[in-house]
Amino acid sequence: MFDTALTSSDFLFLARGAGMTLLVTAISVVLGTCLGIACGIFRFQVGPWWAAPMTFLLDIFRSIPLLIQLVLVNAFLGMVLKLKISGFSVACGVLTLYTAAYCAEIVRGAIEAVPGTTRRAARSLGLTWWQDMTSIVLPLATRVALPSWIGLALGVMKDSALVYIVQVTELLKATQILITRLQEPLLLLMICGLFYFVISFPLARLGGYLERRWSND
Amino acid sequence: MIEIEKVHKSFGQLKVLKGIDLRVAKGEVLSVIGGSGSGKSTLLTCINGLEPIDSGRILVDGTEVHAKSTDLNKLRRKIGIVFQQWNAFPHLTVVENVMLAQRKVLGRSKPEAEAEAVRQLSHVGLGDKLKVYPSRLSGGQQQRMAIARALAMSPHYMLFDEVTSALDPQLVGEVLDTLRMLAAEGMTMICVTHEMKFAREVSDRVAFFHKGVMAEIAAPAELFGAPKSEELRAFLSATH
């Protein structure tokens, strides 16, 4: 098994794929989380009725398989609107909305978990809505949301494998290309899995670390 | 002075306050007693504008609480309120709990806010718990912290909403002692309470609420000694 035709430049090719996976994930998770926080706060603030159109829109992104979203958005932008947009941008855009859709629900749930009486106490001390949000709700809700959010980020990282469909050569696609050429699927998939693990593990540990640090009871 | 004029308030179909008229002068300690659902707690949340009212008006130092032009956040600095549930901010230490609003609302510097927090916490007997998280405190200690947190804002008025009702019996005394101390220092206070002994000893006047109406108000000796209405007699005999 260790008698392999894998060269160092092939390995570098895989590493570059891993870099692409990391880049697409990082952009989508950062932007998607920001958008998700905004949507989640909006959803909480205006109530289910007024937020219904937004919730419906986000539900679309949550319920249609990512692969189909990527193909449809790519086709729509390229063939219908005749826009010259790179596969990379489409991938980041779709994954951002996908992340935002899940994140909005996490944020809404986390804000709802902050006791109304605690917030009332903050307001009765003269804190404005914004000060209450930043000093009380944000830190408390973050603690609630963190485990789900870590799960979401890891999920998006793995789902990002689907962006090969819009011609982005990320880790899994790079692996497949090498498998086709070298015919050594087991070794290559093991290396691929190792790359995924190396990317995910720090994030998972970061979550555990923050949870321990924030648990003061 | 707190002036309450013909205040009506309802939650949906339920009329909670039916025309309350009440004046509380500077330095006065008023206790409000009455059965649950009599509207006494609602009155407190209306005074600092946490709840809107249907009609009538409430003036605090001449400022109408529910007027559109009133800056409620500014007005609330004058009015400290402590609730039945003590509502500590669980992610902050005791001293940070007391510093937060001082820094955010009053714009005090960190050393200033900290000095005031330490002063107020020592005052309520928590000088040795500064760096502790609230979850390590007993209910009585958390409630005293909530009182210190409100006092650190240098309020002109303090509203206490059944502050001992959620406490274990053996912890009630320490919180009532804190209230007694405040009353002795001349703080203007409205205490919604079930502690009749406390109301009798500490208050200048006691108001009895019944079904959204202020049925009686008098000096404690008079109100407890010679209740006029049948409702108050029934209430007092049930609570004794």
TrEMBL record, chain A:
Residues 18-207 form the ABC transmembrane type-1 domain. It is found in: Cell inner membrane; Cell membrane. Gene3D superfamilies: MetI-like. It holds the Pfam family BPD_transp_1. InterPro entries: AA_ABC_transptr_permease_3TM (IPR010065), ArtM/GltK/GlnP/TcyL/YhdX-like (IPR043429), MetI-like (IPR000515), MetI-like_sf (IPR035906). Keywords: Amino-acid transport, Cell membrane, Membrane, Transmembrane, Transmembrane helix, Transport. Its main location: membrane. It is a multi-pass membrane protein. GO terms for molecular function: L-cystine transmembrane transporter activity. PANTHER family: L-CYSTINE TRANSPORT SYSTEM PERMEASE PROTEIN TCYL, MEMBRANE COMPONENT OF AMINO ACID ABC TRANSPORTER. Belongs to the binding-protein-dependent transport system permease family. HisMQ subfamily. This is Polar amino acid transport system permease protein.
TrEMBL record, chain B:
Residues 2-236 form the ABC transporter domain. The keyword Acetylation does not apply. Its main location: membrane. CDD domains: ABC_HisP_GlnQ. It comes from the Bacteria. One of its GO terms (molecular function) is ABC-type amino acid transporter activity. This is Polar amino acid transport system ATP-binding protein. It comes from Amaricoccus macauensis.
